Amino acid sequence: MAPTRSKRYWGTQRVARVLQVTPATVASWIDQGHLKGHRTPTGRRRVSAVDLAEFLRAHGMSVPNELQTSRERPVVVVVEDDPGYLKALVRTMEREAPDVDVVEATTGVDGLLEIGRLSPDLVVLDYALPDLNAVQVVERLVDTSKRLTAPVMIVTGGLPAAAENDLRRLGVRAIVNKVDGMGVVIEAMRRALQSSRKVA
């Protein structure tokens, strides 16, 4: 059906609206294995669009159009090891950019796995992670033609000048300081998404 490239994830609120049950029921079904889903690093439950569509068909329910049009929503992978900042950023993104699907990772390796699995429209990457720094992550995203396989935006509390030069050389589109506030981060993310998605 839908390629892995376009796999999207739905939160319990959206799943509940489609299934016409409460979010608590959706959470219970996920926990009991009735509905295929997973937990994000911040504890939120997520269900992929493909798995939700299969669940609906298996129970004789109609599949809404938004589940069938698989490429309409941009996917952003956020790689951030600070749980407080990650939670705040994801909440802000869900509020300010509800048309974007957010996938979370808390280490460089987990981020690389999600990026490889999803081919996202944008990667929002913290500079200092427990296992790798942003330069090491971005180096692994450069393909044989020396181009990034996914657009990258760095959100950091500060980084060495040499690292900034390396990141620019590797093709990073934007570097934003956390102290500038969430509004600046969201605006930079929107600009990066607009330039990465030539087709709507």
Number of helices: 9
Q: What's the pLDDT, averaged over the residues?
A: 83
Uncertain runs are 1-6
Any idea what the radius of gyration is?
17 Å
Beta strand count: 8
In N-to-C order, the SSE pattern is EHHEEHHEHEHEHEHEH
* Helix content bin: 40-55%
Structural shape: elongated
Question: Roughly what fraction of the amino acids lie in strands?
Answer: 15-25%
Structural class: alpha/beta
Quick one: biggest sheet? 5 strands, parallel
Question: Span between N and C termini?
Answer: 21 Å
Major beta sheet, strand line-up: 5-4-6-7-8
Tell me what the structure shows.
The protein has nine helices and eight strands. By secondary structure, it is an alpha/beta fold. The protein has a five-stranded parallel beta sheet, with helices on both faces. A three-stranded antiparallel beta sheet has the order 1-3-2. The longest helix is centred in the last third of the chain and has 15 residues. The protein is elongated, with a radius of gyration of 17 Å.
